[in-house]
Every structure is written in C-alpha cells, then in structure tokens.
Design a protein that fits this description.
About 35% of the residues lie in helices and about 25% in strands. By secondary structure, it is an alpha/beta fold. The chain folds into two domains: about 140 residues, ornithine cyclodeaminase, domain 1 (2-Layer Sandwich), CATH 3.30.1780; about 180 residues, NAD(P)-binding Rossmann-like Domain (Rossmann fold). The strands form two sheets. Strands 1, 2, 3, 4, 5, 6, 7 and 16 form an eight-stranded mixed sheet that branches. Helix 4 links the parallel strand 8 and strand 9. Helix 2 packs across helix 3 and helix 2 runs antiparallel to helix 11. The chain is globular, with a radius of gyration of 19 Å. The mean pLDDT is about 95.
Length: about 350
C-alpha cells in the first residue's frame, strides 16, 4: 500500500490560489454548520529541551469537493524548539498526514509549514471575498514574511480583475524592497514600498497585517472609509496589530468565536480595556459563507470590517485534501510503499 509524499516544492507546484480560497471558505462553512469535528489541540511540552509538540486532528463530514462523499480526515503535527535557531535550524517543523475518511488508510504525508502558510493565506482571501468592497483597487500590506506573501497572492486571486497596486510596509528597508520587487515579478501586480503606515493606508480598500507586533501598526484615523482588514499575524493574547479604536467600530468577524476570545490579542486586549464585549463579534466567517449572516452587502456604507484569524484545523484538513488531489492528478510527489 503506497503513501504519497509531498515536499514543499511539490506543494508549491500544484497550489491553485483561487481554488484554495474556495476550499478554505467551504471548510469555514462546514465548521459553522456543525459538519466539522475539530477538537482542541494537544500540547506536549518537553521542558528540558525547551520544546513543544502540538497535535491537531480534524474531520470534515462529506460530501466534500476534494475527497468525495466520505469526507476529509487529517492530522497536523508541529514541533517548536526554541534553541533551534541558534543551531541553524528552523524554529518550527510541521507534517500533515491525510487519511481516507471511511477506512483510516493513510493517503499522503505533506510538509506542514508550506501547507499552513497556504491555508492561512487562503483564509484571508476568503474573508476579503465576503467582507471587502467588491472592486478593490489598492491593498496595504504590513509585513514581508511568508504570511504576507501568501495573503497577497490569495487576495489577488480573488480580485485579479480590480486590484491595481499593493503598498508594503516592513521593518527592514532592504528586505522590504526585495520583497516588493520579487512579488511584483511573480504576480504582475505592482508592489511598492510605502514610506510608512499613513502612505500605505491612503485609499486602501483592503488592509492585511501579517506581523508579530505587540503594538498597533497604524492609527485608527488613517483607515479609508469602508476598508476591510485581515488581521493575521498576532496569535497570542498579548500581541496586537490593530488599534482598539478600530476594533470597537469595526464589523468584527472571526474564524471561531471561542478561540478568538481567548487567543487573539486583537480581540482579547480591547475586551480587557472595556472597549468591546463578547457580543461585539458579529459572526464567524463560516456563517457568512453559508449565508446565515450577511457579508459586505449588508453593511452600512463606509463601514470598516475586520477579520481576525487564529487558525483552525478544519483549514488544514481542507487544504491537505485539495493539494493531494491536485498532486495525484498532475503526477507530482513521491509514492512510497509503506504498508
């Protein structure tokens, strides 16, 4: 019995950003409809090594577009070892195993960091699809890392007919310039370096924050009327990228309510400051995909929207199944006689 091994290079050969956005959107819909079983992640600390293993299983009930009527089943394993950078090694490693949902037969083993970057980018693309104004022409991007890249590519896949420019803000001027040059060459979208937050945000209908900041990246008054924000980078209760004033006046949409209320600093800190209450969360993104809550069409003119994501295993399951099917169809990857 063979298992398909998919490396980072293999995954990047077959990724289809428009399809990835659709798959992740449907994963959010399954989550909101109660068709996804996503238990709390398991933490296994190795204190003597300052390491941590995380186990994240998930199942999406069928019918599912990527794997047929049986549904989708996968598990992600992530290791985080704090001393690795000093050893010249990555801080984080990840693997995703995809299973046949009705038998439990292992189908594929996929490199996890690339898969995670793709599914997170696709989540941002899905949020922009439902929450941003329908014909955005300008995007403001904070960050120059992997997440900044995948967010931009996924959003461009959704709005390829209208997006005309992206402006990027980064801490390292040389790295930011190289990022802008490379993404422009890869996508054909003009990406230019902004002199600061105000310049980046001027007239921007979509704003993407993909940093590890502990303080807001811009002032509330800098936002253009009707802007949509995808908050991706802050993933701990003490981290924030968006001002509390913005959160308090924005139509707040999250990937999962409980996770956002406990893990997302952009939500937790305004709660602690008394700027918002738990009821300020307008909807989960899956509810909007399902149509049980209206998206941008139901908002007031000029209203700001804010999507805050902390990540969910349902996204990993959907993207793993999608990449597997694309790789099988294209003959990409290495099959290993495993059993």
């Amino acid at each position: 019995m063979k298992v398909l091994i998919l490396s980072k290079a293999d995954i990047l050969k077959v990724v289809d950003w428009r399809a990835a956005v659709e798959e992740v959107g449907q994963a959010f819909a399954a989550l909101a409809a109660g068709r996804a079983n996503v238990p709390l992640r398991t933490h296994f600390p190795l204190e003597s090594q300052e390491g941590l293993l995380l186990l994240m299983p998930g199942y999406i009930e069928g019918p599912a577009s990527s794997t047929g009527p049986e549904g989708q089943l996968a598990v992600k394993l992530v290791s985080i070892f704090n001393h690795n950078p000093a050893r010249g090694l990555p801080l984080i490693y990840g693997l995703v195993t995809l299973f046949e949902a009705d038998t439990g037969r292992p189908l594929a083993l996929l490199e996890g960091a690339t898969l995670t970057a793709i599914r997170t980018g696709a989540a941002g693309g899905a949020a922009a699809k439902y929450l941003a104004n329908p014909q955005p022409s300008r995007l403001a991007l904070f960050g120059t890392g992997v997440q900044a890249e995948t967010q931009l590519k996924a959003t461009l896949a959704v709005f390829s007919d209208s997006l005309r420019e992206a402006r990027v803000v980064g801490r390292d001027s040389l790295k930011t310039a190289r990022f802008a040059e490379r993404i422009t060459a890869e996508t054909g979208l003009p990406v230019r370096v902004a002199g600061g937050a105000a310049e980046a945000l001027e007239g921007a209908e979509i704003v993407v924050t993909a940093t590890t900041s502990y303080t807001p990246l811009f002032e509330d008054a800098m936002l253009a009327p009707g802007a949509h924000i995808n908050g991706i980078g802050s993933y701990q209760p003490s981290m924030r990228e968006v001002p509390g004033e913005t959160v308090s006046r924005a139509r707040l949409v999250v990937d999962a309510r409980e996770a956002a209320l406990h893990e997302a600093g952009d939500v937790v800190i305004p709660l602690q400051e008394g700027l918002i209450g738990p009821e300020h969360i307008y909807a989960e993104l899956g509810e909007i995909v399902l149509g049980t809550r209206p998206g941008r069409a139901g908002f007031e003119p000029g209203e700001i929207s804010f999507f805050k994501s902390v990540g969910n295993a349902a996204q990993d399951v959907a993207i793993a199944a999608h990449i597997y099917q694309k790789a099988r169809a294209a003959g990409i990857g290495t099959e290993v006689e495993m059993f």
